[in-house]
Amino acid sequence: MKFNQLRDFVAVARAGSIHQAARDLGLSQPALTKSVRQLEKELGTPLFQRTAQGAVLNEMGRRFLRRAEVAANELSRGQDEVSQLLGSQGGRVALALSATPSLLFLPNALKVFRRSYPHAEVRIVEGLLPVMLPELRDSQLDFVLAPEPAKSLGSEFAVSPMFGHRRAVVCRKGHPLGGARSLAELVDADWVLTGAAGPRSSELDDVFRSRELPVPRADIQCESLMALVSLLANTDLIALLPEPWLVANVTAELLMKLDLDDEIGAPAICLIQRKDLPLTPAAEAFSNALHREAEYLATRLADGFGSRG
After folding, report:
1. Integer Cα distance of 285 and 279 in angstroms
2. Which of 51, 69, 116, 130 has the highest local Cβ count within 10 Å?
C-alpha cells in the first residue's frame, strides 16, 4: 500500500467524484482511477459505488476512510517534518483556536512564525473543543488552543495550561445596565452564552448558584467570535467573557466590562495535542510563538497594560 494510493482514495472520498478529485490533485482521471483500483485490488474489495453522479463510498469504504485519513495525514506530516529538519521554510501547519487566543495571541504570533517559516501553508480553524477534537485525533490539526476542558480528555491527549485569567460581565458601551455592581442586579438581564467554557452549567448556572442567586434565562448561544462581538456591540445582550477580551484591538472601542464586586474565575487557556505524536518543527515554532504572546500579555495585564499592537 503506497502513500499516493491513500492520498488518492481520501481525495475521491471527499470530492465525491473522480473528476473533481483529479482536478484537486492535479492528476489525470485515468491515473487517479488506476491508483484507486490498485488500492481496491490490494484490499480485496471495492471501496466505492460508481454512479452517474460520481463515486460514493460503500460500507467498506466508509470504514476504511477514517484510518486512511489518519495514515495519509501522518505520512504527509512526516514528509513535512523531515523537510523542515533539513532546513525547509515551508510545510503545513493546522491549528484550531477558541475566541480568546484568536483575539489576543494570534496576530503577533503569526508575524513571528512567518519570519522563520515564510513559505509555510497555515490553516486556522475557529470552534469549540468538541468540534476540534475529531480533527486533532485524525491528525488534520497539529494542536488546539482552547479553555481547559471540564472533564479529562483521557490518555490520548496532552493538555498544558498556557494562560490564566478571570471572567467579566461584558456589554456594549452605554448599556442600560452599565452601572450594575453585583450579579444580583443582572438576574433578569438578556444573556448570551458562548459555549466556550463547556456546558451551560459551567458557563453561567454555577456562577449564580454558588452565590445563591436565581439562574438567569439565556436563550441564545453564539459560537462565532465575530457574530458574538456584533451582537454585544449592537444589542443589549450581555455575556460572561474572559476579561482580557477588553484589551483586544477588535473589542476595546466597542465593549466594556461591568465593575462588579464579584470576581469570577475562568478555565485556563490550554495547549492540547496528541500525546503520542511530537509536533513538526513548524508546528512547534507556531506553538512557541503563541506561548510567548500569552506570557507577554499576562505580564502586561499584571502591570496594568493591554496587549501589544
Report:
1. 9
2. 69
Q: Residue 200: what pLDDT?
A: 67
Which residues are CB-neighbours of 67 under 8 A, at least 6 positions away? none
Report the CATH number of the 3-83 domain.
1.10.10.10
**For residue 249, what is the DSSP state?**
T
| Number of H-type helices and E-type strands within the chain | 11, 13
Q: Which of 156, 6, 158, 160 is nearest to 79 (CA)?
A: 6
Residues with Cβ within 8 Å of 302's Cβ and at least 6 positions away in sequence, in order, are none
Average pLDDT by stretches of 10, the chain with 309 residues: 86 88 89 90 89 84 85 76 72 91 94 93 89 87 92 90 93 95 95 81 85 93 92 96 90 93 90 89 94 92 65
> How far is residue 114 from each of residues 25, 93, 108, 120, 147, measured CA to CA in Å?
26, 11, 10, 8, 26
Asked if 272 and 156 count as a contact pair (C-beta separation under 8 A), the reply is: no
> What radius of gyration do the chain's Cα atoms show?
23
CATH entry, 166-265, from 3.30.1380.10, 3.30.110.40, 3.40.190.10, 3.40.50.300: 3.40.190.10
Residue 75 has which C-alpha cell? 505520512
Query: Residue 94's beta-bridge partner residues?
Result: 123
Write the CB contacts of 166 (distance below 8 Å, at least 6 apart in sequence).
Answer: 242, 243, 263, 264, 265, 266
| In 16-58, alpha helices (H) | 18-25, 29-43
Query: What is d(CA 306, CA 298) in angstroms, rounded to the nearest whole number?
Result: 9
At the top level of CATH, which class does the domain 89-164+268-302 belong to? alpha beta
